[in-house]
């Protein structure tokens, strides 16, 4: 389910909770339903459930199908009661989805060995992380949209806010990033970023643009389309941000990214300094391979803060669960 079609999902919050000993078997996801009127409700879901007795079901997301496990009725009924129609909570487990867009670079230079990161906690989860986060010939992802990471430029966010009436600021969580870089000199310069490296020796390959939809117009406090100018953000960006020839009617904000090879176990943290190590000669075209320029850029961002998760919304940093409606309930 996507908020563009089911905006009420924005009223559902999720937070991962680990025990002090980081025992993943005892970890859980705390779901909170926060309607604009009425009391909030909470439910705990195991982060890594026992799938022995769970029913296997098919899930087709963006024409990239996979198998998943249907969670027990107690979870499905709770979510259905919150949303007002029947839904299923599905757990990915050891399964994964194929990446359908191109994630590979074309360059006159041979690429150096890539670095990467993976927190010690996340490495305990069952999904095959190495295939999911790095640029392999057979790229895999979880229930993330198109890639495991979405990198945005905070300076570009300020540009979006400038299009709103005085006193209003664009809510960054509507862009759903899990990495935010601050300190960039110009807005929209991320369109050309190809590779970033952090002070913790983490490399990220930025492979495609993230094209945007009507979800930008949703009011996260009501779970409905926004009113006033904040409900017209998509239209405002369409005036000058339809810059991807592969999706010419949709505005671009942010870049899909994959982790470089060979660095699993490294940790990237808020406050890491960021260096742009490669820039593309031109903007990428969605669905096509990336043409990377030969020149290597090494200008360090002035502040270069990196956020791994949006604490203000308590979004999950992984997407091993998905909620989808039963066909006969809508």
Automatic annotation (TrEMBL):
SUPFAM superfamilies: MOSC N-terminal domain-like, PK beta-barrel domain-like. Residues 123-277 form the MOSC domain. GO terms for molecular function: catalytic activity; molybdenum ion binding; pyridoxal phosphate binding. It holds the Pfam family MOSC. InterPro entries: MoCF_Sase_C (IPR005302), Pyrv_Knase-like_insert_dom_sf (IPR011037). It comes from Aureobasidium pullulans (Black yeast). This is MOSC domain-containing protein. PROSITE patterns: MOSC.
